Amino acid sequence: LASEAGSPEVALCNPCIQLWNQGVNVLLNYIVNVGVIGSCAQLCGHVHSRVGHSACELVCSAVGIKAFIKALNHTDLDPFFFCEEVKACPRAPDDAAIRLLAASSKPGAVAKGDEVQLSVALQVINASGVGEFLIDVDGPVKQWISQG
Q1: Is 96 within 8 Å of 126 (Cβ atoms)?
Q2: Contact at 8 Å (CB) between 128 and 92?
Q3: Are the beta carbons of 9 and 3 closer than 8 angstroms?
Q4: Which of 19, 123, 131, 140 is the most buried (most CB within 10 A)?
Q5: What global pTM score does this model have?
């Protein structure tokens, strides 16, 4: 990341992503139903998880209620874009480029309850911003399995 490790932008990034995962739908519903919201405390009071509430207060207070609501209303429900918009996470560079070199699992075949070690090898050509990997498992299972 281009930002310094101790910068406010980096310090707010993880709480912002946590907020998204823990309570963004509650916030959006509250905004739609109430309309005018005067403070971060009023808005964040509707996030019921302790982590989500704390993250909401931290990020909203850092950027201000107007900017926070504006970003919530214009981010197409993508946590990384939202957190970049409120300047909680560093923006990804336009020339980000990463090449997947290899992906593997050990053991190659497993039974229910077995542990699996997953490995990925990447070549970072140009640094990327904040993001995530999504893993899908194909196999003879009756239920879809995924972890992000």
Answers
A1: yes
A2: yes
A3: yes
A4: 19
A5: 0.59
